[in-house]
Amino acid sequence: MKPGVDGNTSQVPGSEVRAETPARPTRSHWLQYWAASAALKALGWLPHKLARAVCAVLAALSYRFWPRLRRVGLCNLRLAFPEWSESQRRRVVYGLFQSFGRMLADFAHFPNWNRENIESLIIYDGFENYARAQSLGRGVLFLTAHFGNWELGSFAHGVYGYPCQFIVRPLDNPLIDRLINRYRCQSGGKAIDKGDFARGVLRAFSQGQAVGVLTDQNMLPSEGVFVNFFGRLACTTTGPARVARKTGVPIVLGLVIWDAKLKKYRLRFEAVEWIKREDPEEEILANTANFTRLIEEYARRYPDQWLWVHRRWKTRPPGEPPIYPS
Fold first, then answer.
1. Domain assignment of residue 20, yes or no
2. What is the domain count for the chain?
3. Is 211 helix (H, G, I), strand (E, B) or coil?
């Protein structure tokens, strides 16, 4: 739970309520940290192509031996694409796992990317939309989603000379949380704890900076509103819409898309128009629905790049039965 821009609890990306992180790391935390740190250093030491090959094998094994995620992905695809065959859905889920593997290899190499070599990994697409928003000098709301290599978006933007801040949910292991954030912030970006969403975002906008916000996770009923996503109501954060309405900052959608033809990513920016309504809450709802619609359009266009293994429709409207097996 976190303060909203209007002083109420909540509407920011996150998922379900979790236990508070222990103040002091436990032995288990240290073991997990050493394993994660060693894995990232080993992958970062390998040549990038070899690291990707290793992670492709790990991804294939994960697909085979992580049945819970596989089942969630297939369930979601049945909801979103009922006309597809089961083999089509399995291909998409397998492609998503391969995307995870590619993302891991690229993340491990974050310390190795710089302005001289970043274009071999990712290029801009529609940068003029971001530049136009930034030129207004009021900050930029950088809407994004768990799409393609979402960790790469703010990082690469910083390498190109446009560091931004981004909202994160602290991991349960504080040591791994700090490790991951060190990698994320290598290019000058700054992580804002979701618990400091309102203050952090408003502070960044007052300095004319951009803030990246993930907008595509399931929320608790007290934290969001229900909007259409693939023909079903999905409980969705209103945080981005509320902060945009309060500040009047320009909004861009920024997604990192894997381009199989180019063999590299495209950081795609699109301007997002603000929908006005007389009633403030109707305005929040309309824009939250619009943000979600834009993400759905890209998920339909690139189905193996969105996070189907997340239980996006877990929270149901009152009276509706659960979608996922307990």
1. no
2. 1
3. strand
